[in-house]
Every structure is written in C-alpha cells, then in structure tokens.
Design brief:
Distance between the termini: 19 Å
Number of helices: 12
Structural class: alpha/beta
Oligomer: single chain
CATH topology: TIM Barrel
CATH architecture: Alpha-Beta Barrel
Largest sheet: 8 strands, parallel, barrel
Helix content: 40-55%
Shape: globular
Strand order of the largest sheet: 1-2-3-4-5-6-7-8
Length: about 270
C-alpha cells in the first residue's frame, strides 16, 4: 500500500477529511520550501502538493502563475524540486508528497530519469496537468512500477468516458476541479460539487479530493461532508508571498491549523 493510500485509509477509519495544501516549490523564497512543508505537515496537512514551476501553467490563475515566475527567476527547476523533497524526507518520512505540474519539465528532465529520481527522493504521487489519462497509460504504468501514484484531474465538464479512463488507471486520489476556469477563480458552489461527486464515484474507486476555489475554513468545512479531501493552493500562495523569510513557515502552519480545526469540528459527518 502506498503512503497516500495508507493515509487515506487511516483518515477513513477516523472519519476525517484529508487536508491537502499546495505550494509552489521555491516560492516565495528558494530556501524556505522545506521549512514551509514541515510546518504545514506539523499543523495537520495530510498530503502536500508541491508545484513544479513552469513558464506556461495553463490551468493556473494569476496567483500561481506569478509564483511560478518568481521561482523560475530563482533558478528552480526539476532538480531543485526533487532536492527539496529529499530535504523534507530527512525530517518527515510519513506525510505523502505529490508533485504537481506540467509535461514540459518532466519531459525535459527525461521521463525515465524523472520516475527513478522522484522515487529516490521520496515522492509519492505525480499529477501532470496536461497528461490526459487516455494518452499516458505508459507513463502511469512506469510510475506504478516503482510505487508512485499517478493522479489525475476531473472537472465539471468531464464526460462519462473521461471518468472511466481516469478510474481505470488513477491511484492515490483524484483531484476534482470544482470550477470551470483556473485556480483561484470564481465562487465555489458546494451544492454543485455534492451533485457531481456521486457521478465520479460510479467510475472512480480511489478517494476524491476537491480543489480550486477553497479559500477559507468555512468552505473547507462545508465540503468535508462530501469530499474525501480538500485542496487549497492559491490562498496559501497569497498569504506567503507578502511575508518576510522568517515568517513564512509559521504563517503557512497557522493557516493549515485553522483549516484542520474546521475540518475536524465538522458536525456534518465524513464519508464512511
């Protein structure tokens, strides 16, 4: 059982919703990423999504686009991202780490090399936004061959066939993009999410996390009744980008603690 699967199984037994924060590797300070990851894990993050900077992040809104630009300006590439994971693993061997990004950095690094080095570094899952499931079964098989979970996106516009394709090869969890648009955009409609998730679960047997548009404890708590996980990214990036280096880990940890408290205080009940 992968580290991600074991985490979700533990949370299911505890009837708790997983909390998955996202940060961009190397932002806002190149030497702060490991500290932020450790602070978030200590504050209650169950899985950490670490964004691989890319110059054309088409699914990301302006907040994360700018974070990628800042990280790239500091020279953060795939090698540096994997080094950050290794640094995190020196202090934390339990919290799963998912690399989230785009095909270009993976392919430039070399797919076989990436899979091997990601495994060695301590990565647990990989979400490549522009790798649709029907076109990357070989890549998914390579990941699974070394014990890494291939993770995929679904959206309000996803067809039944896309859900079936994702359900066939996804491992770890599926990331449901709750809004039509980019990260950080729009207003999340929790009723629409509640309607969509049963359709997804007809075809997908791994846990379903919900992201895009979750900015505060109230929204996260509202979703905890229907989602297996909540994913928060843009709001965290916004909070950290204005902080001095000495504050970023504490600020990130405090925000995660507030969301964790809200999730654990929910009286709505979590899926069995």
């Amino acid at each position: 059982m992968s580290r991600i699967a074991a985490t979700f199984e533990r949370l299911r037994m505890q009837r708790r919703t997983a909390l998955i924060p996202y940060i961009t590797a190397g932002d806002p300070y190149a030497d702060a990423t490991v500290d932020i990851m450790l602070a978030m894990a200590g504050a209650g993050a169950d899985v950490i999504e670490l964004g691989v900077p890319f110059s054309d992040p088409m699914a990301d809104g302006p907040v994360i686009q700018k974070a990628s630009e800042r990280a790239l300006a500091k020279g953060i590439g795939m090698g540096q991202v994997l080094a950050m994971v290794r640094g995190f693993r020196e202090c934390n061997d339990t919290t799963p780490v998912v690399l989230m990004g785009y095909a270009n950095p993976v392919e430039r690094y070399g797919i076989e090399r990436f899979v091997a080095d990601a495994k060695t570094a301590g990565v647990d899952g990989v979400l490549v936004v522009d790798y649709p499931p029907e076109e990357c079964e070989a890549f998914a098989s390579q990941l699974q061959g070394v014990g890494l979970d291939p993770i995929f996106l679904l959206a309000p516009t996803s067809t039944e066939q896309r859900m079936k394709d994702v359900g066939r090869i996804a491992r770890g969890y599926v990331y449901y993009v709750s809004l039509k648009g980019v990260t950080g955009a729009g207003h999340l409609d929790t009723d629409a999410v509640a309607t969509m998730l049963p359709r997804i679960r007809e075809h997908v047997k791994v846990p379903v996390g919900v992201g895009f548009g979750i900015r505060d404890a109230a929204t996260a708590k509202a979703l905890s009744a229907v989602a297996d996980a909540v994913v928060i990214g843009s709001r965290i990036v916004q909070l950290l980008e204005v902080e001095p280096r000495e504050n970023v880990a504490a600020v990130g940890g405090a925000f995660i603690a507030s969301i964790r408290e809200a999730l654990d205080s929910s009286t709505e009940g979590v899926r069995a």
